[in-house]
Amino acid sequence: MADSDVQELVKFRSGSSATVGLAPLNPGPSPQDMDQAISDATLAVDDLRWLQPGDTVFIKPVINSGRPYPSTTSALAVAGMIRLLKKRGAGRVVVGDMSGVFHFDQKPDGCKSSTRELAKSAELLHAVEDAGAEWAFFEESGWDSFHEEHPAHGSHWQKGLMLPNVIREVDHIVSMPRCGRHSLLGNTLGLKSVVGYMRFDTRLQYHHAASSIQEKTAEANTVPTLLEKQRLTVTAADKVLATFGPHSGHVMVPQQGLVIASRSMVAHDLISLAWLILHWNQAPWSSKLALTDPSSNKFTTNLANRMVCGVLGGWSRVMSAETMEHSPRPEIWRDRTLRRAFELFGGVPTIELQPTQSSISPQLLAEFASMVALPQAMRAA
User: Of 118, 237, 346, 350, which is most buried, counting CB atoms within 10 Å of its CB?
Assistant: First the structure.
């Protein structure tokens, strides 16, 4: 980043330290390999003492479509986390999500499609059940099975968020996103996965007031239930959806993949975004054009967002939707969702990387450390 670029950016205070566990994964891992990597990365950052015998844990994957990993969360990774939690004493493990607007339709009088069917085609449905967990597809409990929560004071949300009742009924929450580009928001990592909780009227509010959509993404993670119960964010990233997103794009398969884990979602997202950037840089030029990586172009980004508003609220919402800022390329210090998260969660965390095996390249670790260290010119006085 050029010094002139740094000077244009807002300044942030340094936050407390946060550990990020990194476990290596070879291409095409077996279930046993994934189980080991999930366990290693998780236990590198958390001894799970919060998990008491018989507790109920909710796992939040990303099922934005019916396409398999990396368009959705890795089925192997979710199954591995279920087995780890069960081994450590969890009574019930509940897995749940609600899909995106172009693959699913939620209205007060019912739904025309099903997240359950999308989970099946994404290879998640049976993997979760076979690992010993149960499903909670939010729409199946009906429009009135949601409650209202408000994010932190000073947010850009004009109304409360309607969230599924199930998250109030569990003891703990583990978020399991994936590492990918997003055609509207630039990237889709841990903070962005909060949208899957939202009832469709809340999603309309989110997309319609688009000038602050990135900030609202971070702010949605400050609702009381998530602040109280969110324990871990864990991503299997042996595949990276490097362009377009969230359900299609150029997939990169690194020679050595990673499982990324942290108790801090902000720290997790810093490393996950760094991993995405490394692979976006390597993706073919032809996959980074306006139509192959829409968030790189302001016109296509806003056209797509207006289409979302139309699906959610009708044609009047298409015409009145606010203009949103696009993301020409993934950049850590210009990422508006992360920038708002730094303000909300105590500053830019000082990240301590915890590799679980020596096979993780020291060069990669040094590159991560350099990418996520707060530049001197951006440090608040």
Answer: 237
The residues, ordered by sequence, that sit 6+ positions from 120 with a Cβ below 8 Å of its Cβ are: 66, 126
Structural domain span for residue 34: 3-378
Tell me the per-residue pLDDT of 96-129, one tens digit each, with 9 for 90 and over: 999 998 888 899 998 888 999 999 999 999 999 9
Residue 5 pLDDT grade (very low, low, confident, very high; cuts 50, 70, 90): low
Other Cβ atoms closer than 10 A to 111: 18
CATH number of the domain at 91, please: 3.40.50.11440
